[in-house]
């Protein structure tokens, strides 16, 4: 699926590696690695993204180690 418009978080360092997210397609949230923009993307439903954001805000997710 083409047409995704990716953006970095405003908290990201412009020179650092991070993930980018596209939310402009109503049925799909796309996530990719900023250092490999032509590489694979993770595509999820908007409801899944909302649940992820909620869990982050509520402190229900622990950091990866």
Which SSEs are present, and which pair or pack?
Blueprint: E1 6-7, E2 19-25, E3 28-33, E4 41-44, H1 46-57
Antiparallel strand pairs: 1-2, 2-3, 3-4
* Termini separation: 32 Å
Shape: globular
Please provide the count of β strands: 4
Mean pLDDT: 86
* Tally of distinct domains: 1
Q: Given the helix and strand composition, which structural class is it?
A: alpha+beta
Q: Classify the helix fraction into a percent range.
A: 10-25%
Strand content: 25-35%
Domain DUF397: 5-55
InterPro entries: DUF397
Protein name: DUF397 domain-containing protein
Pfam families: DUF397
Any overview of this molecule?
- The protein is α+β, with helices and mostly antiparallel strands.
- It has one helix at 46-57; strands at 6-7, 19-25, 28-33, 41-44.
- It has one domain (6-56).
- Helices cover 18% and strands 29% of the residues.
- A four-stranded antiparallel β-sheet has the order 1-2-3-4.
- The longest helix has 12 residues, at 46-57.
Please outline what is shown here:
InterPro entries: DUF397. The chain is an alpha+beta fold.
Name the descriptors.
single chain; 65 residues; alpha+beta; four-stranded antiparallel β-sheet; DUF397; DUF397 domain-containing protein
């Amino acid at each position: 699926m083409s047409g995704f418009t990716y953006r970095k978080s405003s908290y990201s360092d412009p020179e650092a590696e991070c993930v980018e997210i596209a939310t402009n397609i109503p049925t799909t949230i796309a996530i990719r690695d900023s250092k490999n923009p032509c590489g694979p993307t993770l595509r999820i439903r908007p409801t899944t993204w909302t649940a992820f954001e909620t869990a982050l805000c509520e402190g229900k997710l622990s950091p990866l180690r």
